[in-house]
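protien #1 (seq + structre)
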Amino acid sequence: MEQAVQDSTNLALAGTLFLAAVAVLMLALPRRLAMLPLLATVCYMPLGQQVVLAGLHFTIIRLVILVGVARVVCRGEARGLSLNRIDKLVVWWAVLSVILGFLSKPDLKNLVNRLGSFYMAVGIYFLVSCWIRDSKTFVASMKLLALLAIPLAILMIIEKTTSRNVFSLFGGVPEFTEQREGHLRCQAAFRHPILAGTFGATSLPLFIGLWFQGRGSRTLALLGCISACTIAVAASSGGALLTLLLGGVGFGFWRFRFQMRWVRRGVVVVILALAIVMQAPVWYLTARLSGVFGGTGWHRSWLVDTTLAHFSEWWLCGTTYTAHWGGNTYVLDDDPDNIDITSQYVAEAVKGGVLKLALFVAIIVQCFKVLGRRIQAEAVGSAPAGVLWWAIGVCLFTHCVSFWSIPYFDQMAVIWYWLLAAVSRIAGDEEAPLGLLAGEPGLGRRFEFT
């Protein structure tokens, strides 16, 4: 699924001008708006463009990270940062991704590739940690994302009706929209339609949560919700549509927010029951759901099967050769050594073994844990104040669902690191007051969500 990187500079004039504008904004804007250039790059700039220097590939987002780090250093915006449990897990995950990945194939090209991924992950995480320190700044970034999603949705509607991608003017994405089974699969500035659909589907819970952060946010929140749904539908991705639906289901469990322990146990019981009743392994539910929502669910179910069957090949530090797993049926055209890995969980295993996969899951578990702690704390105070924590939790849940259908790269990787860093800063710090939202004006005070 992840696309191959070209070996030469291909930065177009339009991309150069966009990069210059973003760099100026990043250096000039106040800290509460510092996320705008980064999020604008995610929404509007195809990341297939790059500058190659001494064999190192700098995509536009990597250049933006460089400018952001320069800003943070010059302004001293990293002062006061301290590592909490989520931060430490992310750092260990990033470091071991490099080490284990290199051990799986100890050559210079592989090491440079892993260091590039490390730079991307740690760079985004560091910048967001410096710029989002409390719930107010996170709500501000939610508003920016909703604002940016509106033009993106309009441009995807244009792409849906004309079958031409406006963002091809920047380079890095095709001019003509891909079709599958008679449906146009719009992708806008994203490298793949599934990434575009996933962006919309996973953004919806945050925009719903934005509705309850004061009356002044409601118009923007409504437009953001409409835009998120439009983006997900225009991408014609079964995985994105399923994620969109489950995000809505997640909000339906708000009334059970103080009984989630029993809900989790109920889910485990249902999974065990299905495992007993079903003739195929339980992960083949994905294949059955694809019959309703479309997509290639069978391939994703088969991928889990074949990964477990070849456990001995990847468990220690991953592997760089999987072509034989599918009998040469699903081998990538641009990477004859590997099959098409369409799951983030499988990608974690293949790129770093059991330890990398375990750390990835541990990061997610810890994020859910700290968000649950915040929600539970609101039981003795102003219960509506917990809606922001709940919205973030549902957003995290939708990402976990999406990980079954696509490995994150390019823009979606940025969104994922943004969410992790935000959760860490506003909910993961043990010394932060539990009633954080209760004392902040305009955050959920006039809200009844029953």
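ok now protien #2
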Amino acid sequence: MACRLFDNVAAILILCAAVWVIGERLWNSRAGLIAVFVTGTLPLLYGLSRWYLVEYPLTAAVAVAIVLLLASRDLEDGRRVVLFGITCGFGLLLKVSFPVFVALPFAYTLWRSKHRAHALLTAAVPCLLVALLWYLVNGRRTIQNAIEAGYGESAIVQGSDALLYLQRILHNGISVYYGVAALVAAIVVAIRKLRALTSLALVSLWAAPFVVFLFGGNKDIRYVAPLLPAFALGLGFLFDTAVGSRDWPLALILAFPLISMLMVSFGRFPAVGYARSYDPVDWPQQAILHTICDNPVFKPGERKLLMLGTDRGSFNANNFELAAVREHLPLAVGTTAHEKDMGVLLRAVDASSFFICKEGGEPESTFFNQHFGEIVDHVRHSGLFEELHPSRKLPDGGTAHVFRRVTR
């Protein structure tokens, strides 16, 4: 976890530097600085910077790719085109959706290039060298999973109402304050300098894939994070143009987002989607795993399967697996959360050496672990498992139960 958060710190610095460079190249250093401030105070972005998720590093990678496109002088600078290709390769290793975020800016830059075929080849080769080997092994499953997550059955969890999604983006993504401020600033700029709005072409292309997410199945707003620097840059330009050379109106405009971020971060304001205060309460995953691994059923060099029967935000297979990796414990971790076939679930549970579930506290999702009660009942009464004592009380008020497969 610490390594992942360190990655996020590096991504914050890279993203801020990239946003400033883009703003300075497109307009001026002041617009770039405002865009950096906006980037740092958008609820979705400062919220995700504290989560163990790939979206923030992905956002930084997209911003770096846009910087390299701008620096390539319409793809005429071969060195920067190569760096763009390498960045795209690493972006693909972060997430298969990376091309969605850079496709239109790249197509626009390619259309302006005088040597399109050569530029395309110069970008494609390093990209393939970085990412192709991994995708040859994992590409099919990765793409299937991406399609399923975006449009398949699992996407139902997030709903499909486009209007509700826009409300989430407004409230939890960019904030109502920035949404209204962007509209007012755009009107002011349109009245004063209508032609100036044409300089928003590149960031508009960058933000355009929002339509894909608006009409996609999965409505988790974190997937649009790589588009938000485009919004921040547009707002940086609009604020810079609307207030002119005066600094005090700008300071007043930007004071509230900063105060809001600090208040949310320190628990004075309620959580805003992914943006929330730090919770110092520890969950006992490590203690539970050490209790299991101190068990005499383990032999030297042996690796056993642990099955998680609960799937909640702070108690699921992912954070148990992270704890097992961090502590170098000989456990493979599986979950009952996504399988709907009861027969398949029973065979998987019976093949495991340990089963962990949580009862009470935060209830199970209605979409996942649909056979939760039946599986727990089977583990308790099948005679194949015995419960290890004592059970553990959890921060949400629930109780963790650990079962060991009986050896015969």
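The chain has a mean pLDDT of 89.
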